From TrEMBL:
It comes from the Eukaryota. Gene3D superfamilies: Vaccinia Virus protein VP39. Keywords: Methyltransferase, S-adenosyl-L-methionine, Transferase. This is O-methyltransferase. The lineage of its organism: Eukaryota, Fungi, Fungi incertae sedis, Mucoromycota, Mucoromycotina. Belongs to the class I-like SAM-binding methyltransferase superfamily. Cation-dependent O-methyltransferase family. Pfam families: Methyltransf_3. GO terms for biological process: methylation. CDD domains: AdoMet_MTases.
């Protein structure tokens, strides 16, 4: 979903507080929350965001480029459950310090289980969910 001003401000505050090096966002929509978080990442940090809708991916990439964050924020297209599996195969030892779960609410439990199964969250990592309880 589209992040509002208050939610964007909250996400920026979380990123500033936790100072994550690797951020994963599950569910990009138009990239507003990715841009909000990406705008306050440390210089050596990066954010990967997953989105299944081709049109949303296109819009998100355009907005990310307009925000000049294309070197920090990367959009991966595909079903998030499949994309998570692909991330594990690409970098089996990569852990995320901050994961923002904002995709199809019916799969939150599946995303959580996959994140835990593959140990994607770092030891002191933070998992934030949007509009849901696990």
């Amino acid at each position: 979903m589209l992040s509002g001003g208050l939610q964007s401000k909250f996400m920026r505050q979380l990123i500033k507080f936790f100072k994550p090096k690797n951020v994963l966002e599950i569910g990009s929509f138009t990239g507003c929350s990715a841009i909000a978080m990406g705008s306050c990442l440390l210089p050596d940090a990066k954010l990967t965001t997953l989105e299944m809708d081709t049109q949303c991916v296109k819009v998100a990439r355009e907005y990310i480029e307009m925000a000049q964050l294309q070197d920090k924020v990367f959009v991966k297209e595909g079903l998030a459950l499949n994309s998570l599996g692909a991330l594990v195969k690409e970098s089996p030892s990569l852990k995320y310090d901050f994961i923002f779960l904002d995709a199809d609410k019916g799969n939150y439990k599946n995303y959580y289980e996959l994140i835990m199964k593959h140990d994607l969250l770092s030891d002191h990592g933070v998992l934030v969910t949007d509009n849901s309880t696990l």
